[in-house]
Amino acid sequence: MTTVTMLIDLAQLRTFVAVAEEQHLTRAAERLHISQSAASAHVRAVEETLDTQLFVRTNRNLELTPAGELLFRKAKQLLNEAVLFSSFAREMRGRVQGHLVVGSSSDLSANRLGDVISEMRAQHPLVNVDLRVRPSSGSRQGLKSGDLDVAVLLDRPTDVALEYHELTKVQFRIVGPAAWKSQIESADWESLAQLPWITPSDEGMAFSAILHELFGARGLTLNSVIGFDNATFARAMVQGGAGLTLVRLEHAIDGEREGRLAVSPLVHAEYSLHIAHLASRRDDPLIRAFVGAAGTVWPALKNSLDSVRS
Protein backbone atom coordinates (compact mmCIF):
# COMPACT_ATOMS: atom_id res chain seq x y z
CA MET A 1 0.00 0.00 0.00
CA THR A 2 1.45 3.37 -1.02
CA THR A 3 1.17 6.34 1.35
CA VAL A 4 0.88 9.75 -0.30
CA THR A 5 2.31 12.61 1.73
CA MET A 6 0.86 16.02 0.96
CA LEU A 7 2.83 19.13 1.83
CA ILE A 8 1.52 22.57 2.74
CA ASP A 9 3.09 25.27 0.57
CA LEU A 10 3.81 28.82 1.74
CA ALA A 11 0.96 30.31 -0.30
CA GLN A 12 -1.56 28.10 1.49
CA LEU A 13 -0.01 28.93 4.85
CA ARG A 14 -0.09 32.66 4.08
CA THR A 15 -3.79 32.41 3.20
CA PHE A 16 -4.54 30.54 6.43
CA VAL A 17 -2.85 33.32 8.44
CA ALA A 18 -4.70 36.07 6.55
CA VAL A 19 -8.10 34.38 7.06
CA ALA A 20 -7.33 33.93 10.76
CA GLU A 21 -6.48 37.62 11.15
CA GLU A 22 -9.34 38.97 9.05
CA GLN A 23 -11.83 36.38 10.34
CA HIS A 24 -13.36 36.60 6.89
CA LEU A 25 -12.59 34.76 3.67
CA THR A 26 -13.43 37.59 1.25
CA ARG A 27 -11.39 40.21 3.13
CA ALA A 28 -8.43 37.85 3.33
CA ALA A 29 -8.63 37.16 -0.42
CA GLU A 30 -8.74 40.89 -1.16
CA ARG A 31 -5.74 41.49 1.08
CA LEU A 32 -3.73 38.79 -0.70
CA HIS A 33 -4.98 39.80 -4.17
CA ILE A 34 -6.35 36.33 -4.93
CA SER A 35 -9.86 35.11 -5.71
CA GLN A 36 -12.21 33.99 -2.95
CA SER A 37 -12.34 30.51 -4.45
CA ALA A 38 -8.53 30.28 -4.36
CA ALA A 39 -8.48 31.41 -0.73
CA SER A 40 -11.13 28.84 0.16
CA ALA A 41 -9.16 26.12 -1.63
CA HIS A 42 -5.97 27.07 0.26
CA VAL A 43 -7.69 26.82 3.64
CA ARG A 44 -9.37 23.56 2.71
CA ALA A 45 -6.01 22.13 1.57
CA VAL A 46 -4.38 22.99 4.89
CA GLU A 47 -7.25 21.42 6.85
CA GLU A 48 -7.22 18.27 4.70
CA THR A 49 -3.44 17.91 4.88
CA LEU A 50 -3.44 18.25 8.66
CA ASP A 51 -6.75 16.36 9.05
CA THR A 52 -7.78 19.15 11.45
CA GLN A 53 -10.63 21.65 11.49
CA LEU A 54 -9.10 25.12 11.74
CA PHE A 55 -12.17 27.39 11.67
CA VAL A 56 -15.75 27.52 12.86
CA ARG A 57 -18.30 29.94 11.43
CA THR A 58 -19.98 32.32 13.89
CA ASN A 59 -22.50 34.76 12.44
CA ARG A 60 -20.59 36.19 9.46
CA ASN A 61 -17.09 35.59 10.81
CA LEU A 62 -14.68 32.69 10.79
CA GLU A 63 -13.09 32.00 14.17
CA LEU A 64 -10.17 29.73 14.92
CA THR A 65 -10.73 26.44 16.70
CA PRO A 66 -8.37 25.69 19.63
CA ALA A 67 -6.21 23.64 17.25
CA GLY A 68 -6.34 26.49 14.75
CA GLU A 69 -5.10 28.94 17.41
CA LEU A 70 -2.03 26.81 18.09
CA LEU A 71 -1.27 26.34 14.41
CA PHE A 72 -1.84 30.04 13.67
CA ARG A 73 1.02 31.12 15.95
CA LYS A 74 3.34 28.50 14.48
CA ALA A 75 2.34 29.42 10.92
CA LYS A 76 3.32 33.07 11.46
CA GLN A 77 6.71 31.99 12.81
CA LEU A 78 7.27 29.74 9.80
CA LEU A 79 6.38 32.50 7.32
CA ASN A 80 8.82 34.89 8.99
CA GLU A 81 11.55 32.24 8.93
CA ALA A 82 10.91 31.62 5.23
CA VAL A 83 11.44 35.31 4.45
CA LEU A 84 14.66 35.38 6.48
CA PHE A 85 15.93 32.24 4.76
CA SER A 86 15.44 33.78 1.32
CA SER A 87 17.15 37.03 2.31
CA PHE A 88 20.20 35.32 3.80
CA ALA A 89 20.52 33.03 0.78
CA ARG A 90 20.70 36.08 -1.48
CA GLU A 91 23.20 37.82 0.81
CA MET A 92 25.48 34.79 0.63
CA ARG A 93 25.97 35.59 -3.05
CA GLY A 94 27.53 38.89 -2.00
CA ARG A 95 24.66 41.24 -2.77
CA VAL A 96 21.38 42.34 -1.23
CA GLN A 97 18.55 41.60 -3.57
CA GLY A 98 14.91 40.70 -3.35
CA HIS A 99 11.44 42.12 -2.99
CA LEU A 100 10.54 44.52 -0.17
CA VAL A 101 6.92 45.40 0.65
CA VAL A 102 6.66 48.74 2.43
CA GLY A 103 3.56 50.05 4.20
CA SER A 104 2.95 53.74 4.72
CA SER A 105 0.29 56.35 5.27
CA SER A 106 -0.87 58.33 2.25
CA ASP A 107 1.26 61.38 3.16
CA LEU A 108 4.47 60.26 1.44
CA SER A 109 5.93 63.77 1.24
CA ALA A 110 5.92 64.16 5.01
CA ASN A 111 7.67 60.88 5.75
CA ARG A 112 10.13 61.33 2.83
CA LEU A 113 9.56 57.76 1.79
CA GLY A 114 10.40 58.60 -1.83
CA ASP A 115 13.82 59.83 -0.75
CA VAL A 116 14.41 56.73 1.37
CA ILE A 117 13.52 54.32 -1.42
CA SER A 118 15.60 56.25 -3.96
CA GLU A 119 18.58 56.08 -1.59
CA MET A 120 18.09 52.35 -1.01
CA ARG A 121 17.82 51.69 -4.74
CA ALA A 122 21.03 53.63 -5.29
CA GLN A 123 22.82 51.51 -2.70
CA HIS A 124 21.09 48.22 -3.58
CA PRO A 125 19.81 48.32 -7.17
CA LEU A 126 18.70 44.67 -7.04
CA VAL A 127 16.02 45.38 -4.43
CA ASN A 128 12.51 45.94 -5.84
CA VAL A 129 9.86 47.69 -3.77
CA ASP A 130 6.07 47.53 -3.50
CA LEU A 131 4.25 50.33 -1.65
CA ARG A 132 1.01 49.71 0.26
CA VAL A 133 -1.13 52.47 1.80
CA ARG A 134 -2.18 51.40 5.31
CA PRO A 135 -3.30 53.12 8.52
CA SER A 136 -1.09 52.53 11.54
CA SER A 137 -3.08 49.54 12.82
CA GLY A 138 -3.14 48.02 9.33
CA SER A 139 0.62 48.39 9.07
CA ARG A 140 1.16 46.68 12.42
CA GLN A 141 -1.11 43.83 11.37
CA GLY A 142 0.61 43.58 7.98
CA LEU A 143 4.03 43.30 9.60
CA LYS A 144 2.87 40.49 11.86
CA SER A 145 1.11 38.58 9.09
CA GLY A 146 4.00 38.91 6.65
CA ASP A 147 2.04 41.05 4.17
CA LEU A 148 4.50 43.88 4.86
CA ASP A 149 8.24 43.71 5.46
CA VAL A 150 8.63 47.20 6.89
CA ALA A 151 6.37 50.16 7.57
CA VAL A 152 6.64 53.91 8.09
CA LEU A 153 3.96 54.92 10.57
CA LEU A 154 2.84 57.28 13.29
CA ASP A 155 2.68 55.19 16.42
CA ARG A 156 3.51 54.82 20.08
CA PRO A 157 6.32 52.21 20.23
CA THR A 158 4.46 49.84 22.54
CA ASP A 159 4.12 46.64 20.50
CA VAL A 160 6.76 44.24 21.84
CA ALA A 161 6.66 42.15 18.65
CA LEU A 162 7.98 45.11 16.64
CA GLU A 163 11.24 47.03 16.57
CA TYR A 164 10.86 50.79 16.12
CA HIS A 165 13.30 53.35 14.71
CA GLU A 166 12.23 56.93 15.36
CA LEU A 167 12.61 59.30 12.41
CA THR A 168 11.21 62.54 13.82
CA LYS A 169 8.54 64.09 16.04
CA VAL A 170 5.41 65.28 14.23
CA GLN A 171 3.41 68.20 15.59
CA PHE A 172 -0.39 68.44 15.17
CA ARG A 173 -2.97 71.21 15.52
CA ILE A 174 -6.77 71.48 15.43
CA VAL A 175 -8.04 73.56 12.50
CA GLY A 176 -11.40 74.71 11.19
CA PRO A 177 -12.84 76.94 8.48
CA ALA A 178 -11.41 80.46 8.40
CA ALA A 179 -14.95 81.84 8.80
CA TRP A 180 -15.08 80.27 12.30
CA LYS A 181 -11.85 81.97 13.41
CA SER A 182 -13.17 83.90 16.44
CA GLN A 183 -15.22 80.93 17.67
CA ILE A 184 -12.34 78.47 17.33
CA GLU A 185 -9.72 80.72 18.91
CA SER A 186 -11.89 81.44 21.98
CA ALA A 187 -13.24 77.87 22.46
CA ASP A 188 -12.34 75.74 25.47
CA TRP A 189 -12.04 71.92 25.22
CA GLU A 190 -15.76 71.29 25.68
CA SER A 191 -16.75 73.97 23.17
CA LEU A 192 -14.29 72.57 20.62
CA ALA A 193 -15.75 69.07 21.02
CA GLN A 194 -19.28 70.37 20.42
CA LEU A 195 -18.44 72.00 17.08
CA PRO A 196 -18.97 69.89 13.89
CA TRP A 197 -16.02 67.55 13.35
CA ILE A 198 -14.45 65.65 10.45
CA THR A 199 -12.98 62.53 12.05
CA PRO A 200 -11.22 59.32 10.93
CA SER A 201 -13.64 56.58 9.93
CA ASP A 202 -10.96 53.98 10.76
CA GLU A 203 -10.17 53.66 14.46
CA GLY A 204 -6.80 52.25 13.45
CA MET A 205 -5.58 55.54 12.04
CA ALA A 206 -3.05 57.42 14.17
CA PHE A 207 -5.33 60.47 13.96
CA SER A 208 -7.98 58.51 15.91
CA ALA A 209 -5.50 57.67 18.65
CA ILE A 210 -4.37 61.29 18.91
CA LEU A 211 -7.93 62.63 19.14
CA HIS A 212 -8.79 60.02 21.78
CA GLU A 213 -5.76 61.06 23.84
CA LEU A 214 -6.77 64.72 23.53
CA PHE A 215 -10.53 64.55 24.05
CA GLY A 216 -11.41 61.06 25.26
CA ALA A 217 -9.02 61.40 28.20
CA ARG A 218 -11.02 64.50 29.21
CA GLY A 219 -14.31 62.61 29.03
CA LEU A 220 -15.36 64.44 25.86
CA THR A 221 -16.97 62.98 22.73
CA LEU A 222 -16.48 64.78 19.44
CA ASN A 223 -19.53 65.87 17.44
CA SER A 224 -18.48 63.92 14.35
CA VAL A 225 -20.50 64.76 11.22
CA ILE A 226 -18.17 63.48 8.47
CA GLY A 227 -15.79 60.51 8.40
CA PHE A 228 -12.61 60.23 6.33
CA ASP A 229 -9.94 57.68 5.51
CA ASN A 230 -7.52 60.10 3.84
CA ALA A 231 -6.08 63.22 5.51
CA THR A 232 -6.07 65.15 2.22
CA PHE A 233 -9.86 64.71 1.96
CA ALA A 234 -10.28 65.95 5.52
CA ARG A 235 -8.34 69.16 4.83
CA ALA A 236 -10.46 69.79 1.72
CA MET A 237 -13.66 69.37 3.78
CA VAL A 238 -12.40 71.88 6.36
CA GLN A 239 -11.62 74.46 3.70
CA GLY A 240 -15.12 73.88 2.33
CA GLY A 241 -16.56 74.92 5.70
CA ALA A 242 -17.71 71.48 6.88
CA GLY A 243 -16.04 71.26 10.29
CA LEU A 244 -12.91 70.89 12.39
CA THR A 245 -10.17 68.30 12.03
CA LEU A 246 -6.63 67.41 13.12
CA VAL A 247 -3.76 68.28 10.76
CA ARG A 248 0.02 68.36 10.79
CA LEU A 249 1.54 71.61 12.00
CA GLU A 250 2.92 72.55 8.57
CA HIS A 251 -0.56 72.32 7.01
CA ALA A 252 -2.02 74.41 9.84
CA ILE A 253 0.62 77.12 9.40
CA ASP A 254 0.20 77.25 5.62
CA GLY A 255 -3.60 77.33 5.83
CA GLU A 256 -3.63 80.07 8.46
CA ARG A 257 -1.12 82.20 6.57
CA GLU A 258 -3.13 81.91 3.36
CA GLY A 259 -6.41 82.71 5.13
CA ARG A 260 -7.95 79.29 4.44
CA LEU A 261 -7.92 77.87 7.99
CA ALA A 262 -8.39 78.94 11.58
CA VAL A 263 -6.16 77.28 14.20
CA SER A 264 -7.06 76.51 17.80
CA PRO A 265 -4.38 77.87 20.18
CA LEU A 266 -5.51 75.36 22.81
CA VAL A 267 -4.40 72.08 21.23
CA HIS A 268 -0.77 71.07 20.78
CA ALA A 269 -0.17 67.37 20.09
CA GLU A 270 2.95 65.42 19.22
CA TYR A 271 3.41 61.92 17.81
CA SER A 272 6.53 60.08 16.70
CA LEU A 273 7.10 58.95 13.13
CA HIS A 274 8.80 55.54 13.05
CA ILE A 275 10.11 52.84 10.83
CA ALA A 276 8.83 49.55 12.21
CA HIS A 277 9.52 45.90 11.43
CA LEU A 278 9.27 42.59 13.24
CA ALA A 279 11.86 42.38 15.99
CA SER A 280 12.69 38.87 14.80
CA ARG A 281 13.77 40.30 11.44
CA ARG A 282 16.27 42.89 12.71
CA ASP A 283 19.15 41.01 11.03
CA ASP A 284 17.33 40.50 7.72
CA PRO A 285 19.53 42.02 4.97
CA LEU A 286 16.53 43.63 3.26
CA ILE A 287 15.40 45.27 6.49
CA ARG A 288 18.94 46.48 7.24
CA ALA A 289 19.18 47.94 3.73
CA PHE A 290 15.96 49.93 4.19
CA VAL A 291 16.82 51.18 7.68
CA GLY A 292 20.32 52.12 6.53
CA ALA A 293 18.93 54.13 3.62
CA ALA A 294 16.49 55.86 5.96
CA GLY A 295 19.42 56.83 8.17
CA THR A 296 20.99 58.65 5.23
CA VAL A 297 17.78 60.63 4.69
CA TRP A 298 16.88 61.20 8.36
CA PRO A 299 19.92 62.45 10.38
CA ALA A 300 18.29 61.68 13.76
CA LEU A 301 17.99 58.01 12.81
CA LYS A 302 21.59 57.91 11.57
CA ASN A 303 22.82 59.30 14.89
CA SER A 304 20.76 56.70 16.74
CA LEU A 305 22.12 53.85 14.60
CA ASP A 306 25.71 55.10 15.02
CA SER A 307 25.35 55.25 18.81
CA VAL A 308 24.03 51.66 18.89
CA ARG A 309 26.94 50.41 16.77
CA SER A 310 29.51 52.17 18.95
Overview of this protein structure:
This protein has helices spanning 10-22, 25-32, 36-50, 66-92, 108-111, 113-123, 136-145, 181-186, 189-194, 206-214, 231-239, 249-257, 285-297, 299-309, and strands spanning 55-58, 61-64, 98-104, 127-133, 150-154, 162-177, 196-200, 223-228, 245-248, 261-263, 269-278. With 310 residues, it is of the alpha/beta class. It folds into three domains: 10-74, Winged helix-like DNA-binding domain superfamily/Winged helix DNA-binding domain (Arc Repressor Mutant, subunit A, Orthogonal Bundle), CATH 1.10.10.10; 76-167 and 273-309, 3-Layer(aba) Sandwich (D-Maltodextrin-Binding Protein, domain 2), CATH 3.40.190; 169-271, D-Maltodextrin-Binding Protein, domain 2, CATH 3.40.190. The strands form three sheets. Strands 3, 4, 5, 6, 9, 10 and 11 form a seven-stranded mixed sheet that branches. Helix 1 packs across helix 3, helix 6 packs across helix 13 (285-297) and helix 13 crosses helix 14. The protein is globular. It starts with 9 loop residues before the first helix and ends with a helix. Residues 1-5 have low confidence and may be disordered.
